[in-house]
Amino acid sequence: MELQLTPEQQEQLSQIAGQTGRSTGDLAREAVEQYIAEEASVRAGVQAGLDDVARGNVLTSAEVWVAIERELED
Fold it and tell me: Which of 5, 53, 54, 70 would staple 9 via disulfide (CB 3.0–4.6 Å)?
């Protein structure tokens, strides 16, 4: 796999690499790893919400506002 970066992105990555003493490859791999982990977490959260809806575990908007107001009071 090859990653295409804009010249600006390449320059920024090179600057960070120079400042941190790390290679641009290591920084790029770390960025991709972080993106994958965050994307997986978001997708899992969305799926959990969809699963709740499928089971009927939902609140009305009025119930949500009551819960929010209760949290803000604490």
Answer: 5
